[in-house]
Design goal:
There is one protein chain. By secondary structure, the protein is of the alpha+beta class. It is about 25% helix and about 30% strand. It has one domain. The chain is built from two helices and five strands; from the N terminus they run E-H-E-E-E-E-H. A hairpin with a 5-residue loop joins strand 3 and strand 4.
């Protein structure tokens, strides 16, 4: 899977770095998401767990260049969003 990342206009680093997320972690979540669904406009949201046990929410769109993925942002799933995710996972197992 080919990934491209959104870069902040004022920096030379991917935006995900602002959230303490690495490219490898994004790839781990996108390769095996627990959830993946439509979001606003043409974007998608994937939620999953990294090998280290961290839960991330990844916002992305299909890449216009080639058939890869353009990652807009990714960040830790926390608080109410994490509670809701766990509830959905419990219901899914029933």
């Amino acid at each position: 899977m080919e990934l491209r990342f959104h870069y902040d206009p004022d920096g030379e680093l991917p935006h995900i770095y602002n959230h303490g997320v690495t490219e490898r972690e994004v790839e781990e979540v996108l390769c095996k998401p627990a959830e993946d669904g439509k979001s606003r406009q043409n974007s998608r949201v994937a939620i999953g767990q990294t090998r280290e046990g961290r839960y991330l929410k990844v916002i992305y769109v299909p890449d216009e260049i080639g058939d890869g993925i353009f990652v807009i942002t990714a960040y830790d799933l926390r608080g109410r969003a994490m509670t809701a995710f766990r509830r959905r996972m419990r219901k899914r197992k029933r």
